[in-house]
Specification:
single chain; alpha/beta; Rossmann fold; Histone, subunit A; 15 helices; about 55% helix
Length: about 350
């Protein structure tokens, strides 16, 4: 393992703008590689997963185990109750002081996850927009329950086709937020994004993306869902329902929890439920890759089953070292002065 501190590559004045991001689709193997890479970087992990922020939702979100958290300290997990609301803007606000504390400790901040909007909120900033309108949101939720999420998505297409094109037809929370912005201001959310500084890099970020051949990735996803059930995923969802966290909550509408809650409340065939979760997870992985490929700054590392997490982490470390060794002081100034 390379023991040379990565920070020593750059002038001390430049170091506090470095940020390393490890991303990739669900099931690709980020956790194992991140644990190895964090130790090489001598830093801690900032999770960038929109579901791992919820307490009590461990198995279905593949949250790092207690042993993994003892090996490398993790942040930005178990932040809120499942009935609380959380946003990418809130995530960016919570991540910022942790990034600054990492700099103060002489560490390079290390973001790991598959939630593209969270990663973008930290690296580029995000448009927060006007405040919420609870009555409007309640009405939109009622429409979604009556007519389905795609009905709201069609409404969004009518007033803001650009934003609608970026949001999946079943992503109720984001659809309602975009409709809410238009309802409150009369202006599409896409127009606000064009007018703001959103999209300009706030740090000199080294983006590393993990990917695999599709068949291998899908096989890993299928196996992971089966392992989740074997680890007690059904019982985890039962406990959430028993605590009063209903299936209508955003947290309980997330992948896997939605299908398992329906199975528990309505009955059915568990094997069929597992197949549905596997299929939807494969579709989600495909959407994640589509999102990430918009970012041409990502250095993609193609994994194979013959590689160990340690070997992949060393490959990542070598690229990070090369990336920052080529940086000029003006690049650091430009990354944040915009």
């Amino acid at each position: 393992m390379n023991e040379k501190p990565l920070q020593s590559i750059l002038p001390r004045s430049s170091f506090p703008l470095m940020l390393v991001v490890l991303l990739g689709p669900t099931g690709v193997g980020k956790t194992e590689v991140a644990l190895e890479l964090a130790q090489r970087l001598k830093t801690e992990i900032l999770s960038a997963d929109s579901r791992q922020v919820y307490k009590y939702m461990d198995i279905g979100t593949a949250k790092p185990t207690q042993k993994e958290q003892e090996l490398v300290r993790h942040h930005l997990i178990d932040l809120i109750e499942p009935d609380q609301v959380y946003s990418a803007a809130a995530y960016a606000r919570d991540a910022e002081p942790l990034i600054q504390k990492a700099y103060a400790r002489g560490q390079i901040p290390f973001l790991v996850g598959g939630t593209g909007l969270y990663l973008r909120a930290v690296t580029e900033g995000i448009f927060e927009g006007p405040g919420a309108d609870p009555n409007f949101r309640e009405e939109m939720d009622r429409w979604a329950r009556l007519y389905g999420n795609p009905y709201l998505h069609r409404k969004l297409q009518e007033v803001d086709p650009q934003t609608a094109a970026r949001i999946h037809k079943n992503d109720r929370a984001r659809i309602i937020r975009a409709l809410e912005v238009y309802h409150l201001t009369g202006q599409p959310l896409s127009d606000y994004h064009k007018q703001s500084s959103w999209g300009r890099l706030r740090y000199l970020t080294c983006f590393l993306g993990l990917t695999r051949q599709r068949d291998e990735l899908y096989h890993r996803i299928n196996r992971r869902v089966e392992e989740m059930v074997a680890q007690g995923f059904v019982e985890e969802v039962k406990k959430l329902l028993d605590r009063g966290y209903g299936p209508e909550l955003n947290s309980m509408q997330s992948l896997g929890y939605k299908q398992m809650a329906e199975f528990i409340l309505q009955g059915g065939n568990l094997d069929k439920v597992i197949e549905t979760i596997q299929k939807e997870t494969r579709r989600y992985a495909k959407r994640q890759l589509t999102w990430f490929r918009q970012n041409h700054a990502i250095h993609w590392i193609h994994l194979s089953s013959s590689q160990t997490p340690s070997e992949i982490a060393q490959q990542c470390f070598t690229f990070i070292e090369s990336f920052y060794s080529k940086v000029k002081p003006k690049d650091f100034k430009n990354s944040i002065s915009n």
